[in-house]
Amino acid sequence: MRDDFNREISYLRISVTDLCNFNCEYCMPEGIEKKDHSDILRIEEIENICKVAARNGIKKIRLTGGEPLVRKGILSLINKIKSIDEITEVAITTNGVLLDEMAKDLKAAGLDRINLSLDSMDENVFRKITRGHELSEVYKGLESALDAGFENIKINTVLINKVNDNEIADFIALTKNKYEVRFIELMPIGSTARYAKEHFFSADEVLKRYPQLELQENTDKSSPAAYYKLPNHKYRLGLIRPITCNFCSNCNRLRLTADGKLKPCLHSDMEIDIKKIACNDELLEKSFLSAISQKPEKHHLDDGKYIIRGMSKIGG
Ligand code: SAM
Ligand code: SF4
After folding, report:
1. Which residues line ligand 1 (CB under 6 A)?
2. Which of 297, 303, 180 is nearest to 250 (CA)?
3. Do the strands 60-64 and 11-15 form a parallel or antiparallel pair, or are they unpaired?
4. I need a labelling partner for 256 at 20 to 30 A (CA). Which of 122, 221, 267, 268 fits?
5. Domains of the chain with CATH codes
């Protein structure tokens, strides 16, 4: 399905819950309000939405949150989505802690890919960012995912000035023979926008510090990352620059929030409420077509226009 700017829309990112077992300082404002169960899409509703989405061109689905692995029924959801003919890939983005107990079941359910968010490899800094959680739990989860047979796990690291910018070399070192790493620029979103402005660290600064990084050919035009590599390193380093380098012209995604709002763009407050019609295929199809046709050409972050919903409420 193509939008008005000739972009093929084939990727749906679904936030399966607003809740999280972490409380990262750049993502979750303190004292987050808990939603009523009835306001959140049921697992069967998400399944049906995925079926209709697949009939309208969606091929890849990523489950995120909040923390997707705290959502009850996540394994059966993955399994059901995997059984939809048109869907070629089901992935999750996770903070990794629950992988220790769930990795084998996730593999058995048919999960194809894992992106793991890791913002520091220093125990104290990790505790500060996550407001009190232990790095060792994430490492345990990562080990279990590898043991369960997940390959090509990508590490996503948000660049945070004066918090983790002194670890850039350590993260780049992981690309030597362990993981693909992607540095993400901190985005001003929701009530943590002020923190983002105070702690913004440009991905271009990474290139200045490491001029030996070689730009790689872009094999996936819809990926928001530009890829680099150090000579003799096995894996790539991705730079995701929503602020300093707009990648909207290749955007292929829609988003669905945990409370059932279909969003044509992460950085726009435009949303279509599909909670009440989640089991009505005809109306759902109309909503998908409408979301695709309303997809903005680009975001307006550089004009200082920020959205109101926080990242944990949209699904990063
Ligand atoms: N809990 C899961 C996790 O942390 O991977 C999934 C949800 S989290 C919102 C998804 C991704 O969004 C994480 O990699 C997180 O670092 C990123 N994120 C959250 N707030 C962000 C912000 N303001 N700017 C850039 N990335 C952000
Ligand atoms: Fe939770 Fe992920 Fe947000 Fe951290 S970044 S608070 S782990 S949703």
Report:
1. 20, 26-27, 64-65, 67, 93-95, 117, 156, 158, 184, 186-187, 189, 192, 196, 311-312, 316
2. 297
3. parallel
4. 221
5. 11-314 (3.20.20.70)
Q: Is 28 in the pocket of ligand 2 (CB under 6 A)?
A: yes
Write out the two tokens for 5: 């700017």
Q: Order of strands across the sheet with 214-215?
A: 214-215, 225-229, 237-240, 180-185, 154-159, 113-117, 89-94, 60-64, 11-15, 253-256, 261-263, 272-273
pLDDT digits (tens, 9 = 90+) for 74-114: 999 999 999 999 999 999 999 999 999 999 999 999 999 99
| Pairwise CA distance, residues 95 & 68, whole Å | 9
- What is this structure's pTM? 0.93
